[in-house]
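Q: Predict the assembly, please.
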Amino acid sequence: MRSAIQQFNRLSISQDAAPRSISSPFIRTLTTTTSPRASLTTTADTVIPPPSDPLQPIGPQSVLATIHAFPSLEPLRFEQYPASHLYLPTRRDILHRAVIYEGDKTRLGTASTKWRDEVHGSTKKIRPQKGTGHARLGDKKSPMLRGGGVAFGPKPRDFSTKLPRKVYDLAWRTALSYRFRKGELTIIDGAMTIPYPSVSYVEDMFNAHGWGNKDGRSLLVTLGKKGRRDFREVMEKLGNFGRMETWDEVDVKDLLEMGRVVIERDALKNILLSHQSDLTNSIWVKGLVSANKQEL
Amino acid sequence: MHRLPRSQRPIEQLLPSVLPLRPCLRNSPCRPSLCATATRSNVSPFSTSAPALSIFSSKPDKKKHRAFVRRWQKRLLGESDPVGAHVDPYDKTSPVRIAPEEQGEEEELLEEMEGGEDWGYTQAETWRGLERIGSDKWVQQWKEWENADSWKKWEPSDSYAPVDKVRDQAALKEAFHRAVVEVITLKKAGAPLEFLNDFVGRHYDPLRTHEVKLRASRDGSVSLLYPSETAVTEFLQKFMSEEADETDVGDEHAELVDELLENGTLQDATIKEKLKEAHLTIAEARSLVGVLKSREVVAKVASEVMAEENESAQAAEELKLNSIPLTDLDLKFNLLKRLTALTGLRISDPNILQIDTFADLYHQLLAASKPQPKKLVEEILADPKKAKKVMSIPNVKISPRRVTVVDKEKEVGRWKVIEYALKERGIPVTGRKVTSL
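A: Predicted assembly structure:
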């Protein structure tokens, strides 16, 4: 042990004895000396030039999104959105869990069959136990007989699975971010309305904007139904061009389904506000835009 | 085990009686079909029972047999009439087989009804007013046709971006140059950029932007070198006068507008009243004020600024796009907007995030001009590096379409033989004409 300490001391002495390079730019010590070399900041003679392309380890904190007029799609302005809303990394696993969760949740689970005591009919023994030369049988509702009950048939049940709220909310924003990152999220200022319930008008509009069938159809998300009755009616007829839903009707699967998402600014705001439980501590959603108060 | 004999007659005849005949209207269009089905369906064309009582054929005792039949008939039908008392449905004279038109009594009744009542029926001569039956698509087409005058149609000009997109690189460069010149000119002159909206057309360039040269200033911004000092001022003044003609304020509103300009707000109660008197909406008044204000500003600033601009631009170096940052969001937005109007191309939001310099903007524009590959092979071949990398893998081949059986046969040189054999036998040679991979 002693020899080890001695060796160590010798080593440290020899290190001290070695001449230190004064010009080394990375000498920093944490001791509180008055020497300029001991300070935490680098001295003037050891300036590190700033990198020409500064690396951003975390990435942008906010992103710009263009707000468009409808139906001309004239760009109106840029608007900033937090990167945690519209610029999240694409997590396929989270999206997959959300879509499965939604699929399970929407299963009706109403398939139903009757067990032998639910089948209508007599419980009388259909033939004597012995002496007929035939198999023993009880009543005619036996699952073995035609017209009898079903032994292990389906009964109404709940297929829904669980997903933590925070994961689901993250999936919502991930889905929107995925669209944004692919350039498939078009944000519309105000309400999407058309003057007449004209199918050809909407058809031509979709073709002009590259939203139609050959461009992969479009999901139109609105704040409410008020004022969009004509447009909704037309979109129901133009199912091969896309679909129109309100912000509370769509789910994660819908956002991922078609060629692009065209969304009203207020609808996007409501979606983002009501799906940020992993970002905020409050469980109350405040500041939602009411569809009834929207100016059309 | 006890065995039940089968009934001799068809099962239908065991029912108490056949369906009662329906009274038919004489002139009703549905009559023949209804009556025919009513009668025909009641007569079963076949019977599941044996043609004769085969089980009794060995016993010629008719008495016993008849008693047996009657006993069963009694049990089944609850009546004691002998079998022969029933009408034989296979007999031609059976009432079941008599057609309703031959049953005189009912027809006579109907004639009386028809003759006695006024039906109030008049035959339509045109289709107008009649109920139409057709698919939803047809109904929609009809609706559109009916409202063709009042319903507006989608015009190509309704879209902000022109439908025919610029793909040519030289044209793109020109458009980029034009957008930069226009936006910076108006920005420096303090004119609102909405001016640009009115001359969106690609072929109409009143500013003669191709004559303007771009220069890089020392402070890292873009300077413009105009062909003559007065070129821009002239243009702006001319443009403004055109504007003024279009949006003629009129003497009646002159005072009101002056007042608005002084006040600067439209929410005042007295001003609202005055607007009401002048039959102007707030939006109209706002646009009026906007035009006038911008006109004032432009007139004041334009000439001075442009002179300075030209001086500084002459001193500046040749423009190198790479060196000039594009950090001003307002400038960036307006450039993008102008480029969209000129070229019909849209740069998507995530790509806008990547734009830091003028060069980035130009490269993004070039990227947006390239049509999106529809097939994987197009995407691979578009990038020579990627194509080379994929091609160099020994066991990978690239085909622009699905590899068919013919392609495989051709590859091993068997196709010629197959083709010859097919022709020899007079069998058509199917498959794609051009099968080169």
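Residues 112 and 155 of chain A are 4 Å apart (CA to CA). Chain A has two domains: 62-107+160-283, 111-158.
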